[in-house]
Every structure is written in C-alpha cells, then in structure tokens.
Amino acid sequence: MLVYLDESYRAKDRLFIGALFLPTKAKRKLLHKQFSDLKKREDFLENGQLKEIKYAKITTNKRLRIAKGAVSLFAGLDNVFFRACTIPYDPVKMSQLGGNKNVPMKIKEAIIYTKATVQLLKSNLDQTTNAVLLMDELTRASGDKFDALIKAKLGNGNKPIFKHIGYVNSASPRNHLVQICDLLLGAILNEAYPTKSKLKIKFREFVKSELKLPTLKESYWKSKLKKIADKQHPKYNIRFWKTP
How confident is the model over 65-89, as pLDDT tens digits? Predict the structure, then answer.
C-alpha cells in the first residue's frame, strides 16, 4: 500500500487533510503513466518536463481539462480511494491544549494536525502493515516534532503500519500523483469556501458528478457513520471531526 498525504489547507476556520490510497505497485504505475500521458497530450510541459497541476492553479480552461482528466483517471481505477478529514480551527481550544500557555500556537496547531493525520490514516488502514507514506513537502513550525510523532504512532512496533515515511516534492514528475490528492481535496475546500472562480466551481461540480457524490457539504457527511460512508461512497468520502 502506498499512501500520498496532501498538505492541510489553513482556510479561514478549518484545517483540511487528504490522503490518496494506492493498494498495489501495479495501480500506482498505471495511474502514474496515465497521468503522465494526459499531461503530454495536453502539451502541459515546461522545458520538456511535466508541469504541476494543483487546485490553486486551475486558472485556465486547459488546466481545468487536465484537472478533470486527473479525476476521471482516479475514478476509473478499482481499489484506489481517497479519504479526507476536516477539523475546526479553534484558537480557544488550541490555547488550552496541554495546559501550557508557553507553547506557541503554531506548535499547538501542528499537534492538532498530527493527531488528525494519525486518525485519518489509521482508520483507513485496518490490518495493513509495511505500507509507504509519502507526504507533500510542508512548511512546518520549528519544534513541532511532526515526523517523530507520526513515526511513533504509525511506524514503530512489531507490525508497523508504515515501513517508510518520507516527503516528496509535488512538482516533481516522479511524484506527481500527489497532485491528484491535492485536486480531490481542493474540491472540498471549494465547497466549504466557494470562490468567484468559475473554473474552480466547474471543477468542484465535475468531481461530484464524476464520483457520484450527492454533495460535499458538511451536513451530509456528518450524518454518516464511517462504515456507512465507506459502504455508500467507497471511492471518496469525507470525515468532519471535532478538534482532537
């Protein structure tokens, strides 16, 4: 199992985390090739190298086509799935975290992010061992101990969930599948905080249509127990959690 973890969007009053799960090397290689071929067909190149497509960069019709194409590739592969979680950014609760007022808020926010990340991954990797976790390079607060905490929770013991935990540059063609994770997470962000961009709105609506999702709104997903959401929407679903 290979898992790509996308960065958390710090959008207004919420944190967003997304993970793309690829169960086999064959699935990863196939999706990687299909995604590369899509970009080549669209001449989405710079100096002969594949360019990066992300939700924030859906600014032209060409980029919209590529983003839609990426979602269609994801939709067409069996057993490849996406899970996301979002938690409220509550400065009051975070300030009380651990009862230590001397800990900077950036560190406390990172601790909340880490807890949510662990919960998201563990809840979707039941009985999985020796998987690989690759994370988009993030800007972290100095001293947040994110790597150590993730490895302690998910990478240690007799049967670690992950045998390797590392970072990748999402702009690199070698690791560009994390861009699909970013796109899928971006649709949730757009639903929560609609933009004036017609292209991004079209993309969000395409994600819902292509993946047969009735909505991305919080009220729908909060009403679903995880096992029900996984059964009804095995390809793509969202968890709305309280601040851990």
Answer: 999 999 999 999 999 999 999 988 7
Q: What single DSSP character describes residue 90?
A: -
| Positive or negative: CA dihedral 186, 15, 50, 35 | negative
Mean pLDDT of 32-60: 97
pTM for this prediction: 0.92
Other residues' Cβ atoms within 10 Å of the Cβ of residue 26: 9
Output the CA–CA distances (angstroms, integers) from residue 228 to 126, 165, 220, 221, 233, in the order listed.
16, 30, 12, 10, 8
3-state secondary structure of 236: strand
Residue 181 in tokens: 């994770």
How crowded is residue 27: how many other Cβ atoms within 10 Å of its Cβ? 17
Residue 50 has pLDDT above 70, yes or no: yes
Residue 162, strand partner residues? 131
pLDDT digits (tens, 9 = 90+) for 125-180: 988 888 999 988 765 555 566 777 788 888 777 778 999 988 899 999 999 999 99
Cβ–Cβ under 8 Å, residues 27 and 74 = no
Token pair of 108, please?
């406390």
Beta strand ranges found along the chain (DSSP E): 2-11, 14-22, 45-46, 49-50, 81-88, 131-136, 162-168, 236-240
What is the set of domains in the chain, with CATH numbers? 2-240 (3.30.420)
Q: Look at residue 38 in the predicted model and tell me its pLDDT.
A: 99
Angle between helices 61-75 and 178-192 (to 10 degrees): 110
Distance CA 204, CA 190 (A): 7
